[in-house]
Amino acid sequence: ILVGSSVSWSASSLNGWPCASPTTSGFESTNTYSHTSPYTFAAIAERTGLFTAYNIVLTNGTSNLGVGFNTTANNAFTNGGSLLTASATDSAFHAIIGVVNSGTSGATVVDGSATSGTTGTTALTSNIFAMDAASGLPLAGKFCEGEIYPFALNSTQYGALNTNMHSATNGWNF
Asked: What is the Cα–Cα distance from 37 to 20, expressed in whole angstroms?
């Protein structure tokens, strides 16, 4: 369960679907989520401001393990103890999938395009945060969907997930 009191909802953010924006902070789980590597974060989000600051989309605690937008404009990241960035145009919605697996075989996947490399192997040991982290790096934008898988998605699986996230039938149609 994610709880949050400082969130505004836009009823028609992405093709008629509602998405959330933090006003001061985002959602936080009421329970601790612990899991060792491998794991995968996936989210749909848009960064509309703070283009040269970390914008956390989905994370596990103060160490900011998860996915979000990097301190460089037009870049997203996966962090499993090591940061791996990929191109993600600002002020546009993106499906971001972050695969954390065996240190050097991770990936940051943005809208189906994978950048492979080192994402780390740090275990998840804290609460889950959406649009914010315990260290205060809020998303300046909108958050539509997020999930964490307790395994590393392979390229076939994250390809199918990306297709579903973008689908007009089952997804957000973007």
From this structure: 29
Does the predicted model carry a pTM greater than 0.70? Answer: yes
pLDDT of 14 reads 85
The predicted-structure confidence for 82-134, as pLDDT tens digits, reads as follows 999 999 999 999 999 999 997 678 999 999 999 999 999 999 988 888 887 66
H or E stretch including 159?
helix 155-166
CA distance readout (Å), 152 to 63, 64, 73, 99, 100: 20, 18, 27, 6, 6
- CB contact at 8 A, 100 and 121: yes
Q: What is the 3-state secondary structure (H, E, C) of 82-141?
A: CEEEEECCCCCCEEEEEEECCECCEEEEECCEEEEECCECCCEEEEEEECCCCCCCCCCE
35 within 8 A of 150, measured Cβ to Cβ: yes
